[in-house]
Design a protein that fits this description.
The protein has 107 residues and is of the alpha+beta class.
């Protein structure tokens, strides 16, 4: 299978080569980082209110004074779907002074 020549395409190609069936739905986790717990909590609350089909997990990062919000979306991980979901999260995260930190598939 051919994937676009960008970071998302590379990750999808590696997953495909590892034998993951990307034509099926998976739990795709999008990672976000915040310097303040209240910013991370605000993202979780926003997601619960506006995107209730998405599950969020808020926890301290291994780095001191950093908070992680891992958001799980059940989806077929196509290049287009991943980019579209990243764009949705980017708008929320930016408003709350956070950072996006990639994505992956839960095994």
């Amino acid at each position: 299978m051919n994937y676009p020549d960008d970071e998302t395409g590379q990750v999808l190609a590696e997953m495909h080569q590892a034998g993951i069936d990307l034509s099926q739905s998976h739990d795709v986790v999008f990672f976000h980082l915040f310097e303040k717990e209240n910013q991370a909590q605000a993202m979780v609350e926003h997601i619960k209110e506006h995107l209730p089909e998405i599950t969020c997990n808020l926890h301290p990062d291994q780095t001191p004074n950093v908070w992680d919000v891992d958001c799980t979306v059940v989806m077929t991980p196509t290049h287009e779907a991943i980019l579209a979901q990243e764009e949705v999260f980017e708008k929320i995260v930016t408003q709350l002074s956070g950072y996006t930190d990639g994505w992956g598939i839960e095994a």
